[in-house]
Design brief:
The complex is a heterotrimer of chains A (452), B (254) and C (482).
Chain A lengths: L5 H20 L2 H4 L2 H11 L15 H4 L4 E2 L5 H9 L10 E6 L10 E3 L5 E4 H7 L1 H7 L10 H9 L4 E5 L9 E7 L5 E11 L4 E10 L5 E11 L4 E9 L4 E11 L4 E10 L2 E10 L5 E10 L4 E10 L5 E10 L4 E10 L6 E11 L5 E10 L4 E10 L3 H8 L5 H17 L5 H16 L14
Helix pairs in contact in A: 3-8, 6-7, 9-10, 10-11
Chain B lengths: L1 E10 L2 E11 L4 E5 L6 H9 L4 E10 L2 E2 L5 H6 L2 E4 L6 E5 H15 L7 H14 L10 E2 L5 H15 L3 E5 L7 H14 L5 E5 L3 H6 L4 E6 L2 E6 L2 H9 L2 H12 L1
Parallel strand pairs in B: 3-10, 3-11, 6-9, 9-10
Antiparallel strand pairs in B: 1-2, 1-4, 4-5, 7-8, 11-12
Helix pairs in contact in B: 5-6
Chain C lengths: L1 H12 L13 E3 L6 H10 L4 H15 L23 E3 L13 H9 L13 E7 L2 E5 L2 H5 L4 E4 H7 L1 H7 L10 H9 L4 E5 L8 E7 L10 E6 L4 E9 L6 E4 L2 E6 L4 E8 L11 E12 L5 E8 L4 E4 L2 E4 L5 E10 L4 E10 L5 E11 L3 E10 L7 E11 L4 E10 L5 E10 L2 H9 L4 H17 L4 H16 L4
The chains are: A alpha/beta (452), B alpha/beta (254), C alpha/beta (482).
Bound molecules: adenosine-5'-triphosphate and magnesium ion.
The site of adenosine-5'-triphosphate has 14 residues of chain B, from strand 2 and helix 1.
């Protein structure tokens, strides 16, 4: 927790050198957060293993490196962004591309869909919709322990803004494609703000890709407001190369009777850390938090979930699974907090992991912290192998061992995938996972990088 | 088709089967009865190739081949089917995918092409009707959340799909309601071809009213202590196992 | 029924501590405060050999550079180590040959606690080492045990009579650098019990140590060392009480267990230190380091604890499973009522092959009590076929208390199977209703349910103590109900 490490110094310097440039292109309101956030970052620093929330993840391998930092898109970026096409067949979405953390569209920085929904650049929205930004920006991404969130607040200047007005149901999901491409090693940060007003319904897909074989580090913060009785789903599909580090922090603030789900599908990536915070801030809210990762080689995947039952009669459910191959390592850190007056809470948490080789390693830390009595909470965590009895059952029907193992692994993963409500994406995920398990796919089909 | 000779087997160093000999000829139905814990399920597991059970002595020949050398899946492809006493739940693996894989593996073994999706679904439908299984069950994960009786019906459904030569049914009758019992029994009888054989493990005469056994064996403490015709089952139903236990003890003393 | 339950819960808070009396025993005390001199005085009082003084001094110097741990989920008020008396001992008469030589006041004290020091009067199957404040006052059945080669005596006697054994094993499981409180103990420990079971011997009776804090402002720092040689077996039990006082008292003990090849050790604790009053005033700070090592193949260490007392409990009885096929077990019931806080659990470190561990933890929170389970299951790279099963349940009685579960699972071997399950829930209204419907009052129903809930753990205790533990649970929880 002592922030005065050399690694932290690196980012303190980065801030000092660039803050004028960053402030110059950002709105006043967003700028007004920077100094306090920077002070907080200076105090907390880049998290080390001494920080309970990062106990099993060594960030230094990516943070202790000289990156070119990226502060503004250039013209050639716009072309690249236009060229990218998602290859999920039948997936009909409102697409947005973020390139290196920026919204790279020259003409239409914010557009309004026929339904009245606004999507586009956060930087632009900060000017156009000052009232909305002032109401929500920086209100949910709160932390007393994680310096990275403050680093993002101090320095990020763009990202995606989505506004779904009261009562609007968006039938097509919005898809954000996060591309990282550069000829040099690069560090980038972006910030998304999603506002789903009362009685609105909306789902968001975020796909993470790397397009060039350089060392990349991304530190992204997403704030989501889910209004009363609103429905919101976020699905993150991660497919980056082994030399990329992706750190995401997603804060979902839920009002009364709202339903929100998050789903992190990690197929590939060097070091991935997804922190998901569900804040149940109104009576009767429901939250679902899912995660699946398949790791191999030297990959390290860490899922952190914090479900905060701050109101009575809320329900939450967490299901996280990991399959670890080669010498990959994984971590799960899940917390359920039930605050003193959150009576009538139902909260569940499950984390299951399969180790496929002797060199793979899994650390898991599920936690229950409960200060109310009328609750039903449980958690379970397992680390092990495929179930012998199930394997025999399949074999006794004539299915060979290899196939049987594959089926079981797929079934294991499918339990998470089946929670994706968008059919085309669900099928695509089943497919990708199956290919991945068969060893036919070691990177995303759409990845142009021959990184191996 | 199946010759078991002086089979001894143990689990975790504990001797459970203590010398079993048995011959099943094509077309025969054998019933195996015996008190709880006597080793019936263990025998079934050995025949199906469960590695947990260690064979310490004896031989098992199946159509002239050494069965004990074969893997579980090869035995299945050669026509051995085990209806589990406690069918396993496999979350996330759908019944359709599971059965399609199994059926096509079996077909491949026989040198047949895999069934097309529509042919397969047609087959599923037919067999489902045969065992009067609820269609919805087939859309779920294997045995997951099935009731005790539904799991047993699902075993018979799988048997119908795989058309085995030798089916070993381990207490497939327990947990079934009266109608289900009749359905299961009818299913078995419909699947019974002249050359196919059954080993039916049961505690109750009532299943044997529907599936008439040629031979009834009593397994006690890892040994077959009595073999007789179908009337033995009736006698057991009436008198319990005590008289057999006594007979066995007397024999040992004598 | 809501009302009923409220009344019962308020009764709960008024449960009186039965062991709160204070005995006027003639004591030998040293001035309060801690310094290198105090360490030397303690060592001198006990006529200790040079090597032991060295060990203490090394620990003391190390302690000076250590900080109190902040990671437990506890609110610990600052402790002023200069206000604590680190050595207090009843003045003993010179030759303690028979029971009549013990100060009659001291004897009365233990009689009152239900721990008669008179062998004739005592439960036949139990040998007792009685420790009051800093020293062991009497060990019963010493001679009977000696005939089998079993050594059971005070730690101080062991230092004199079996220096080689003590030297070899002391600090081998809990090194003096281990943690803040263990290091403190290593510097100032006063006495405790020592036990050695020779090769092939099954100890024929329960061995037990009874700890009593009596003097005011006195810290208790005892050390227990238990060695089970190859093929041996012993079941060991400790009990603890203290007078009710307004000040907090510090108890920082160490227990070390070594189990050699094929040896089995059962270690049971019924901890009933003074918990403080219902406003949260006073009570014992129970900061204890307990650890056992399954050194040899097929060895087994089993911890059972019933924790009902203490204002604050901080302890993690652990097993290092080094021998192949060794087994570690942890069974715990921890109750926190009023303002009590507990952060307790275990560590199971799987090093050897085919090692197994089982964790069953039952937390019960009432009043404003805060109860945390904290545990680590670690499977090292070479620990093939390691198995762990953990079940941690929490029961909440009342809406002001808290129950928390912090398991850490670290697996570095693919053949391991580690399963952790935990539940937290309120005492079942339907269960209470079911009892009511059968004519059982709500208070009795809560008693029944809580005892049923803790049964799995209580059953692990030796018979005589299981009954005690059950009573204790009722008293500490149900107030007038029990
Ligand atoms: N995995 C195992 N580990 C240890 N012992 C086992 C195992 N499986 C079976 N046994 C033991 O083997 C013996 C025979 O068990 P088996 O299941 O074959 O009996 P059964 O005749 O089928 O009984 P039931 O009528 O109750 O089904 C029993 O004593 C049982 O406890
Ligand atoms: Mg059976």
């Amino acid at each position: 927790m002592n922030g005065k490490s050399e690694v932290t110094e690196r980012y303190i310097e980065l801030y000092k050198e660039n803050i004028d440039k960053i402030s110059g292109v950002s709105s006043h309101y967003i700028n007004s957060f920077r100094e306090a956030a920077f002070e907080k970052f200076r105090e907390l620093g880049i998290p080390t293993k001494k920080n309970e929330a990062y106990k099993y993840t060594n960030l230094n391998i990516f943070f202790d490196h000289d990156y070119k930092s990226y502060f503004m898109p250039v013209t050639s970026d716009f072309v690249k962004a236009e060229e990218f096409r998602c290859d999920v067949a039948d997936l009909d979405t409102h697409g947005i591309v973020l390139l290196n953390g920026f919204y790279p569209t020259i003409n239409e920085k914010l557009r309004q869909l026929p339904s009245g929904v606004w999507i586009g650049s956060l930087n632009e929205a900060a000017v156009r919709f000052a009232d909305k930004i002032e109401k929500h920006y920086g209100k949910y991404a709160k932390t007393e322990t994680d310096g990275l969130i403050h680093l993002n607040t101090a320095m990020a200047s763009d990202g995606v803004f989505i506004y779904v007005p009261e009562g609007v149901t968006l039938t097509k999901p919005v898809q954000i494609v996060n591309l990282v491409q550069s000829d040099e090693d690069m560090f980038n940060q972006h910030r998304n703000l999603i506002i789903v007003e009362k009685n609105a319904e909306f789902s968001l897909i975020i796909c993470d890709h790397t397009l060039s074989p350089k060392k990349f580090l991304t530190n992204a913060v997403t704030e989501v407001f889910v209004g009363e009785n609103a429905h919101f789903d976020i699905i993150r599909v991660q497919n980056e190369h082994n030399n990329a580090c992706k750190i995401t922090h997603t804060f979902i603030h839920q009002e009364k009777n709202s339903v929100a789900s998050s789903n992190n599908m990690t197929l590939h990536g060097g070091l991935i850390r997804n922190s998901t915070y569900h804040y149940l801030g109104g009576e009767g809210a429901e939250s679902y938090s899912y995660g699946l990762f398949l790791a191999d080689k030297w990959q390290h995947i860490d899922n952190f979930v914090n479900v905060d039952h701050a109101s009575p009669h809320c329900t939450s459910n967490q299901l996280f699974k990991g399959v670890l191959d080669d010498m990959s390592t994984g971590a799960f850190n899940g917390r359920i907090l039930v605050r003193p007056d959150a009576q009538g809470t139902l909260a569940y948490q499950k984390n299951n992991n399969i180790l496929l080789t002797d060199d793979a390693k899994m650390d898991t830390k599920p936690q229950l912290e409960i200060y109310a009595d009328d609750v039903k909470c449980s958690h379970g965590a397992t680390v092990g192998q495929l179930d012998d009895d199930a394997l025999f059952y399949l074999q006794s029907r004539g299915i060979n061992k290899r196939e049987a193992r594959l089926m079981l692994m797929f079934g294991f993963a499918h339990e998470v995938i089946q929670n994706i409500k968008i059919e085309a994406l669900r099928e695509r995920m089943d497919n990708l996972v199956m290919q991945r398990l068969k060893g036919e796919l070691s990177r995303c089909a759409s990845c142009m990088v021959k990184c191996g | 088709m199946l010759i078991i000779n002086n089979l001894k087997a143990s689990i975790g160093g504990k001797n459970i089967l203590k010398g079993i000999s048995l011959e099943v000829k094509p077309g025969e139905i054998h019933a195996i009865m015996g008190p709880n814990g006597s080793g019936k399920s263990t025998l079934a597991a050995v025949l199906a190739g469960r590695e947990l059970v260690e064979v310490t002595e004896g031989t098992v020949t199946y159509f002239g081949k050494n069965l004990l050398e074969m893997t579980a899946e090869d035995r299945a492809k050669e026509g051995i089917f085990l209806g589990f006493q406690y069918p396993i739940e496999i979350p996330g693996v759908s019944m359709v995918n599971f059965m399609k894989t199994a059926v096509n593996e079996n077909r491949k073994h026989k040198g047949l092409d895999p069934l097309s999706a529509s042919d397969f679904l047609k087959m599923m439908r037919e067999k489902k009707e045969l065992v009067e299984i609820d269609s919805k069950l087939a859309n779920r994960s294997v045995n997951e959340g099935f009731s005790g009786g539904e799991k047993k019906k699902n075993e018979i459904f799988q048997m119908a799909m795989l058309e085995p030569k030798l089916a070993i049914l381990d207490e497939t009758d327990s947990g079934l309601d009266i109608d289900a019992l009749r359905i299961v029994a009818n299913g078995v009888n419909k699947l019974k071809l002249p050359d196919n054989s059954f080993i039916v493990i049961t505690h109750y005469q009532r299943l044997l009213d529907y599936i008439i056994p040629d031979v009834v064996h009593v397994l006690y403490d890892g040994r077959i202590v009595k073999t007789a015709g179908k009337e033995l089952a009736l006698e057991l139903e009436e008198k319990g196992y005590d008289w057999i236990k006594k007979e066995v003890e007397n024999n040992i003393i004598a | 029924m809501e009302k009923d339950q409220d009344k019962i819960l308020s009764d709960v808070t008024s449960g009186e501590y039965k062991y709160g009396f204070y005995s006027d025993i003639e004591m030998d005390r040293i001035p309060k405060g801690l310094s290198e001199d105090v360490v030397r005085i303690i060592s001198g009082k006990k006529n200790e050999p040079e090597w032991l003084l060295d060990f203490r001094l090394k620990a003391y110097r190390h302690w000076l550079i250590m900080k109190m741990p902040t990671w437990p989920n506890l609110k610990i008020p600052p402790i002023n180590y200069q206000e604590i008396i680190f050595y207090a001992a009843p003045k003993l008469r010179k030759n303690l040959n028979s029971i009549d030589d013990i100060d009659p006041e001291l004897k009365k004290t233990f009689d009152k606690l239900g721990i008669p020091l008179d062998e004739q009067k005592h439960l036949a199957g139990v040998a007792v080492d009685a420790v009051i404040d800093s020293v062991s006052v009497k060990t019963t059945f010493k001679e009977t045990l000696a005939e089998m080669g079993i050594i059971f005596c005070s730690f101080s006697d062991a230092v004199k009579e079996y220096p080689d054994l003590v030297k070899r094993y002391m600090g081998s499981v809990v090194p003096y650098t281990d943690n803040f409180f263990a290091t403190l103990n290593s510097a100032v420990f006063s006495d405790g019990s020592f036990c050695y079971i020779p090769k092939g011997v099954r100890c024929p009776m329960e061995l037990s140590t009874y700890f009593r804090i009596n003097s005011a402002n006195t810290g208790q720092f005892e050390r227990t060392l238990l060695i089970a040689d190859e093929e041996s077996y012993v079941s060991y039990l400790e009990g603890c009480t203290a007078p009710s006082r307004d000040e907090n008292q510090l108890h920082a003990a160490i227990v070390e267990i070594v189990a050699e090849k094929n040896a089995e050790v059962k270690y049971s604790t019924v901890q009933n230190w003074y918990p403080g009053n219902k406003e949260g005033k006073g009570g014992v700070f129970n900061f204890v380091t307990k650890r056992g090592i399954c050194k040899g193949e097929n060895s087994k260490i089993s911890w059972t604890q019933i924790e009902t007392g203490s204002a604050i409990t901080w302890k993690y009885p652990s097993c290092i499973l080094r021998g192949d096929n060794s087994t570690g077990e942890f069974y715990s019931v921890a109750v926190t009522n009023n303002y009590q806080q507990a952060d307790t659990g275990t560590k199971m470190i799987h090093i050897g092959k085919n090692t197994k561990s089982t964790i069953v933890s039952k937390g019960i929170s009432a009043g404003k009590g805060q109860n945390s389970y904290r545990g680590l299951v670690k499977v090292l790279k070479n620990a093939t076929n390691a198995r762990n099963f953990s079940q941690c349940d929490s029961l909440l009685l009342g809406d002001k208390c808290g129950a928390h579960t912090f398991p850490y699972i670290e697996v570095d071997n693919q053949t391991a199977i580690v399963e952790h399950e935990a539940t937290t829930s309120k005492i079942g209204e339907d269960q209470i209703f079911y009892c009511n419907q059968r004519g059982i009052s709500t208070d009795d129903a809560i008693g029944l349910i809580v005892n049923g809930y803790a049964r799995e753990v209580i059953n692990k205790l030796p018979m005589e103590f299981a009954v005690e533990a059950q009573k204790l649970l009722q008293i500490s929880l149900e107030g007038s109900v029990g």
